[in-house]
Automatic annotation (TrEMBL):
SMART domains cross-referenced by the UniProt entry: UDPG_MGDP_dh_C (SM00984)
Residues engaged in binding NAD(+): D30, K35, T86, T122, E176, K296, R360
Domain UDP-glucose/GDP-mannose dehydrogenase C-terminal residues, every copy: 346-448
Keyword NAD (UniProt): yes
Gene3D superfamilies: Cytochrome c1, transmembrane anchor, C-terminal, NAD(P)-binding Rossmann-like Domain
Catalytic reaction annotation: UDP-alpha-D-glucose + 2 NAD(+) + H2O = UDP-alpha-D-glucuronate + 2 NADH + 3 H(+)
Domain of life, source organism: Bacteria
Annotated protein name in UniProt: UDP-glucose 6-dehydrogenase
Similarity-based family: Belongs to the UDP-glucose/GDP-mannose dehydrogenase family.
Length: 463
C-alpha cells in the first residue's frame, strides 16, 4: 500500500521504516531539512535499537523515501499518518499546533482518490473531528486560490473532495528503547473511527503484523485489533499512560514506606506482582517517571477532565507522588553526605530510561538543577549522551567520557538510568577513585552485597 508519514520523530520514523520493511511503499515527510538530509543518507536522527538497519534496507529496496515536500507525500499516500509532536503547554494541555499545521497541509494538497488520514500523534479527545474540520478548511483554502481574482468562489467541488477522506485514530503504544520490537510485536492495535472503508484499509495495512509475520514469536495468536469510535481510541492512549504512571507512583509510595519500616520493596514487588490481577510489570521502584510521554499525557488528561468540570484526583496524586520521588536521590544524598555545597556528585545515566537518547523531561534534569542550587558540582556519564555529544536541554553538568573518569574525585554516585552496561562496570576501581565511595542506586539495579564488597556504601530506594 502507499503510505505517507508526516513527522519523523520517535514515532513517525519507526512507523515509516517498519511499514516499509513489511513491504509498503512509504514516503516520510518532515519539515526539518537537516533531519531529512540525514535520513536520506540512511542515518537515523534518533538512537533506537535496530532502526538504522531497517531504514537502510528499506532505502536500498526503494521502499522508503524522505522529503520535506508535503505535497509529494500527500499525492503519494492512500494512508496519511500524522505523527508530529504534541508537547505540553505550561497549562498542561497539549499543544496541537503541529497537528493543525499538518492537517491544513494535507487539506491544501489533497488530490483525487480516497485517503485515510490517521492520527498517530497523541491528541486531545475530540481531535479526530477537529482534524477533519481543519482538513476541510485546507481544501477550502486551496479552492479560493483556484478562483480567478474578482471571480466568484464556487464550492461545488468541496463536498466531492470532502467525501474522499476519512479520519482514523490509531494511537501509538511503542516504548522508546524498544520501538522497532514493539512495532512488530504489539500487544494490540487500536483503530478508532466511524468509516468501515477506512478501518478495512487500516486492517489491510497492518495485516502482516497482525498475523505475526514479523514477530519474534510467530506461534503467538494474532494481534488483537480493537475498533472503537474516535473519542474512545483517543481516550485509550491517555488512560493507558495514566494507568502506567499511576502504577509506578504506587510502587514508589510503597518503597518510601518500606524505607521507613525496614522492608525490601524489591521483594514486595515480586510478592504482589505474582498476583495475576496485579502483574509484575511497572513495579520497579526508583526515582520516578519521566520522558516525553507520561508527564505530558497525564497532565493533558487532568486538564481535559478539568475542562469538563471533573477533578482527576488519582492522576493528580500520581503526579504529586512523582514530583517528590524525582528528588528522592537528593534526599538520600543529604542523609549520607549532609552538606552538599562543594561536594561532587556523579550521575550514572542521564536519559529517562535505557536504550534511548531522549532527554525530554528526564528525572536527571531535576536532580542536576537541585544539586546545582545546593552548590554541588555535578558530573555525569551516559553511554549514549557521552558518545553522541547530545547536549540538548543539559546545563550545569560536566559530561564525562567513561564511568571511571566520572568516579574520579566524586563524593557520591547516583545511578539514574539502568543501562545494562552499568551492571558490569569495574566498581572496585571506581570506589578507589572516589573521595567517598557512596552510591545511591536510584533504580534498585545493582546488587547491594556486590557493591558493599566493592567498597561502596550502598543506598537503594525502599530496600
Ligand atoms: P518528535 O518530537 O520526536 O518528532 C516529531 C517530528 O515531527 C519532528 O521530526 C519534527 O521535525 C516533525 N514536525 C513537526 N512539525 C512538522 C510539520 N509541520 N511537518 C512535518 N514534520 C513536522 O515526536 P515523537 O516523540 O515521535 O512523538 C510524536 C507523537 O507521538 C506525539 O504526539 C507523542 O505524544 C506520541 N507518542 C510518542 C511516543 C514516544 O515514545 N516518543 C510513544 C507514543 C506516542
Amino acid at each position: 500500500m502507499r503510505v505517507c508519514v508526516i513527522g519523523t520523530g520517535y514515532v513517525g520514523l519507526v512507523t515509516g521504516a517498519c511499514l516499509a520493511h513489511i513491504g509498503h511503499d512509504v514516503i516520510c515527510v518532515d519539515n526539518n531539512e537537516e533531519k531529512v538530509k540525514l535520513m536520506k543518507s540512511g542515518q537515523s536522527p534518533i538512537f533506537e535499537p535496530g532502526l538504522s538497519e531497517i531504514m537502510q534496507s528499506a532505502i536500498q529496496s526503494g521502499k522508503i523515501e524522505f522529503t520535506t515536500d508535503i505535497a509529494a507525500g500527500v499525492a503519494h499516500g492512500e494512508i496519511l499518518f500524522i505523527a508530529v509532536g504534541t508537547p505540553p503547554l505550561p497549562t498542561g494541555e497539549s499543544d496541537t499546533r503541529y497537528v493543525e499545521a499538518v492537517a491544513r497541509g494535507i487539506g491544501v494538497n489533497l488530490n483525487g482518490g480516497y485517503k485515510v488520514i490517521v492520527n498517530k500523534s497523541t491528541v486531545p479527545i475530540g481531535s479526530g473531528d477537529w482534524v477533519r474540520m481543519i482538513v476541510l478548511d485546507g481544501i477550502a483554502e486551496r479552492q479560493k486560490t483556484l478562483v480567478p481574482a474578482g471571480g466568484v468562489l464556487s464550492d461545488e467541488k468541496l463536498p466531492e473532495i470532502a467525501a474522499q477522506f476519512d479520519v482514523v485514530s490509531n494511537p501509538e503504544f511503542l516504548r522508546e528503547g524498544s520501538a522497532v520490537y514493539d512495532t512488530f510485536n504489539p500487544d494490540r492495535i487500536v483503530l478508532g473511527g466511524n468509516s468501515q472503508r477506512a478501518i478495512a484499509l487500516m486492517q489491510e495495512l497492518y495485516a502482516p503484523i497482525v498475523e505475526r509475520q514479523y514477530a519474534n514469536d510467530k506461534s503467538l495468536p494474532a494481534v488483537p485489533i480493537l475498533t472503537t469510535d474516535l473519542s474512545s481510541a483517543e481516550m485509550i492512549k491517555y488512560a493507558a499512560n495514566a494507568f502506567l504512571a499511576t502504577k509506578i507512583s504506587f510502587i514508589n509510595e510503597v518503597a518510601n514506606i518500606c524505607d521507613r519500616v525496614g522492608a525490601d520493596v524489591t521483594q514486595v514487588a515480586k510478592g504482589i506482582g505474582l498476583d495475576s490481577r496485579i502483574g509484575n510489570k511497572f513495579l520497579q521502584a526508583g526515582i520516578g517517571w519521566g520522558g516525553s510521554c507520561f508527564p505530558k499525557d497525564v497532565a493533558a488528561l487532568i486538564h481535559t477532565a478539568d475542562d469538563y468540570g471533573y477533578e482527576a484526583q488519582i492522576m493528580k496524586a500520581a503526579v504529586s507522588v512523582n514530583e517528590r520521588q524525582r528528588l528522592i536521590a537528593l534526599e538520600k544524598l543529604q542523609q549520607v553526605l549532609k552538606i552538599l555545597k562543594g561536594k561532587t556528585v556523579g550521575l550514572l545515566g542521564l536519559t529517562f530510561k535505557p536504550d534511548t537518547d531522549d532527554l525530554r523531561d528526564a528525572p536527571a534534569l531535576n536532580l542536576i538543577e537541585q544539586l546545582n542550587r545546593l552548590g554541588a558540582k555535578v558530573k555525569a556519564y551516559d553511554p549514549i549522551v557521552s558518545q553522541t555529544g547530545l547536549r540538548h536541554g543539559l546545563s550545569g553538568v560536566l559530561v564525562e567520557t567513561d564511568a571511571e573518569r566520572l568516579a574520579d574525585g566524586c563524593d557520591a554516585l547516583v545511578l539514574v538510568t539502568e543501562w545494562q552496561q552499568f551492571s558490569t562496570l569495574d566498581y572496585v576501581k571506581m570506589a578507589q577513585l572516589m573521595s567517598h565511595p557512596v552510591i545511591i542506586d536510584g533504580r534498585n539495579f545493582l546488587d547491594p552485597e556486590t557493591m558493599v564488597r566493592a567498597g561502596f556504601q550502598y543506598v537503594g530506594v525502599g530496600r
